[in-house]
Amino acid sequence: MEKRLWMICATHMFIEIYLLIQVALIPVIVHEFQLSLLEASLIATVPSIVSLLINIPSGFLADRFSTNHLLFASMIIEGVSAFIISQTNSFWALVIGVTFMRIASPLYHVSGLSQISRSTKPENISRSVGFHNALGSLGSAIGLVSLTLFLSTTGWRWTYLFWSFPIIIWGFILLTSPQLKIKQFKIRTNPSRKRSSRLFSVFSPALVLFLAVIAVRELGATGTSTFMTTYFVDFRNLPETIASLVFAFGPVMGIVGSLGGGFFAERLGARRALKWTILCCAILLLTLSLVAHLYLLALVYLVYALFNNALWSPMNTIVASITPETERGLSYSFYFFTEALMDSIAPSIAAGVIVLSSVWHVFPFSVAFFIISLVILQFLPRYERLSDDPKIATERIQ
Length: 398
Fold this sequence. Notes:
The protein has 19 helices and 2 strands. By secondary structure, the protein is mainly α. The protein folds into 2 domains: 1-184, Up-down Bundle (Growth Hormone, Chain: A); 194-389, MFS general substrate transporter like domains (Growth Hormone, Chain: A). Helix 9 runs antiparallel to helix 14. The chain is globular.
């Protein structure tokens, strides 16, 4: 893999360090600031809404500005926010800091994945995205390990302070890197082209159908992941420390899953790899709802985490394959907007299911959405263009 792609993947590692820390800190924040659970949930909901709104502007920026400027901006936002969070003693200042930090994620993801899809040969996109996602999972794992270490010694704020300086330094390295001093794409079409025609070229029937697949699958996956530790503790009677430990190993399995997802998407084709991955996730979730022994419960969950991370590579590859090259940033922004929208509403829907029944019923609830997404996926066209240029051969999404 060339140096440019390694730098983008390393940036992904830094951007994901704080991804799971906020959720893991909710019990600590409730105790420290004397909050209700509803008040503490604002540290997750408010940043998610802001991140959702930033996705679409990020797509327009990714198609108009150079990669190093956008990645630099994401690192500075992340690093400065982390430093501010480490110094705050107010809950509302903490919410504002985390909200500002979440702006960095869509700014990075849309720009980084757009550049990977444009600078990688079509047959190698799945492999490159697999490495990209693996380093993101590594970042999440590093963040949780760091949090565990600092919680038991100097306090949770040191987790934010410790990583803020390397992140800011990496941002300046990106800014001065000659490998990244390129614009995402030079517009080759008529400059008088209307914005409405741009949106029409992005919203092909294939992309609309695939966004439906993403939305339905995300409803099921997010609903389960939000209440996984609740299921372990309340339904399977695991100690909170054991439940948290099992949950923390998910990002570690994500490293293997991301690499494996890229490999299988390259060998089987993105569409077929995604189909089998979603099917395996559905089977494993159903199995997870039936096993009770600690070791079996942990084993099935970790295998589920592996497959749940393996699907990102084929999904990102399909987005690159069914959208125009000139509008790749805008296409990825709609992709992430759909994910973020489902992430913001799925927990409430799943919570309603739990209130009306029990936490166990969230599993058949999620499995049903996985199966529906599989059915929709069958209608995705097998041949799609890779570029606006008719001279470029199309790729078959097997």
